[in-house]
């Protein structure tokens, strides 16, 4: 039987990060929440959990994300593993937005760190964070309440959501793609394409594929089962294969990247808009319990 090599994360970084974390206050928070009751508010029976998701540890989050300990420890760990500064890196995604979104979907939103920033950047927009872990959504909702932000959290699989075609004009994902096998990442891009209006934008923030390829040892640092596949791939190519145009990737502090793509506007519809036949919905209300009935949002680009 092969002897498992401990990762650098397990041997060196995890003990250091654990030293930096205020475990007592985390424990107090964890114990103050009725996790089963609150997660039941999000949990949907029709969501099937894929096997890639439950069989692995992810950078020190033992047992994956389907438990309260992942939801409690994710933010304190992540602040130390997204250099040089977690907020600056997330801000790069916000800065890359080229649309004036009215409906935003953040896929694999986790505890909602990027989702909250999206809502702060576009307070008028309806913002939805979707994740496979109802426990992560509980933490996300607590953060939204503390920040006084009205965000909808949805239990679901980013590969196949329940939303109608063309329901959003911005779809984002941060730190999700390096945690998914290539076929899943491609399925998520296809789903993003389906969910966007024509002219809508997709933005993927994640590890820098060039850097990860050049510094192979970096892939050993974190306990990430799919990061080598992610590093070997090209998000530009994957987005192109999903149908996106104007695809471009920019470096974010060398170790991360943000990749943008736009769902092309069909010529037929361009003509419709130019002759004034296009009638965007003016209804901006949203029933949180019935998101399947989303209409297509109107769409405007920033000057
Ligand atoms: C590394 S965390 C990133 C969380 C958050 N986006 C951030 O930037 O901090 C990855 C998240 O993706 C979620 N996830 C993984 N696969 C998913 C899928 N197929 N559909 C929805 N969420 C998924 C996990 O539950 C986890 O919360």
Number of strands: 9
User: Helix fraction?
Assistant: 40-55%
CATH architecture: 3-Layer(aba) Sandwich
Average pLDDT value?
84
CATH topology description: Rossmann fold
Tell me the strand order in the biggest sheet: 4-3-2-5-6-8-7
Number of domain modules: 1
Order of helices and strands: HHHHHHEEHEHEEHEHHHHEEHE
CATH class: Alpha Beta
Q: Please, what is the CATH homologous superfamily?
A: Vaccinia Virus protein VP39
Number of helices: 14
Question: How is this structure best described in words?
Answer:
The chain is α/β, with parallel strands linked by helices and 303 residues long. The protein has one domain (1-296): Vaccinia Virus protein VP39 (Rossmann fold, 3-Layer(aba) Sandwich), CATH 3.40.50.150. Helices cover 41% and strands 17% of the residues. The chain contains 14 helices and 9 strands. It has helices at residues 8-20, 23-32, 35-40, 51-54, 68-81, 86-95, 113-121, 134-146, 182-195, 209-214, 218-221, 227-232, 235-241, 267-274, and strands at 99-100, 103-107, 126-131, 152-155, 168-174, 196-207, 245-252, 256-262, 300-301. A 7-stranded mixed beta sheet has the order 4-3-2-5-6-8-7, with helices on both faces. A two-stranded antiparallel ribbon has the order 1-9. Helix 8 (134-146) links the parallel strand 3 (126-131) and strand 4. It is globular. It starts with 7 loop residues before the first helix and ends with a strand. The relative contact order is 0.14. Bound molecules: S-adenosylmethionine (SAM).
């Amino acid at each position: 039987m092969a002897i498992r090599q401990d990762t650098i994360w397990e041997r060196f970084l995890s003990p250091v990060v654990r030293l930096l974390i205020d475990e007592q206050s985390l424990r107090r928070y964890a114990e103050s929440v009725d996790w089963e009751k609150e997660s039941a508010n999000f949990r949907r029976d029709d969501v099937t959990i894929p096997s890639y998701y439950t069989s692995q540890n992810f950078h020190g989050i033992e047992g994956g994300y389907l438990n309260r300990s992942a939801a409690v420890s994710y933010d304190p760990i992540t602040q130390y593993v997204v250099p040089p500064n977690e907020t600056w890196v997330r801000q790069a995604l916000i800065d890359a937005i080229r649309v004036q979104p009215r409906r935003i979907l953040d896929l694999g939103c986790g505890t909602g760190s990027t989702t909250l920033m999206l809502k702060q950047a576009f307070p008028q927009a309806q913002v939805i964070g979707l994740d496979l872990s109802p426990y992560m959504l509980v933490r996300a909702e607590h953060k939204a309440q503390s920040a006084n932000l009205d965000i909808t959290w949805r239990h679901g699989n980013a590969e196949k959501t329940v939303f109608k075609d063309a329901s959003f004009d911005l779809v984002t994902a941060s730190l999700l793609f390096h945690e998914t096998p290539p076929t899943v990442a491609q399925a998520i891009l296809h789903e993003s394409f389906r969910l966007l209006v024509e002219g809508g934008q997709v933005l993927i923030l994640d590890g820098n594929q060039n850097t990860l390829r050049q510094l192979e040892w970096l892939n050993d640092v974190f306990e990430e089962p799919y990061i080598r596949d992610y590093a070997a791939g090209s998000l530009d190519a994957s987005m192109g294969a999903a149908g996106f145009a104007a695809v471009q990737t920019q470096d974010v502090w060398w170790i991360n990247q943000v990749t943008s793509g736009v769902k092309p506007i069909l010529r037929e519809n361009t003509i419709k808009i130019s002759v004034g036949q296009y009638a965007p919905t003016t209804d901006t209300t949203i029933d949180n319990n019935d998101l399947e009935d989303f209409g297509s949002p109107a769409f405007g680009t920033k000057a």
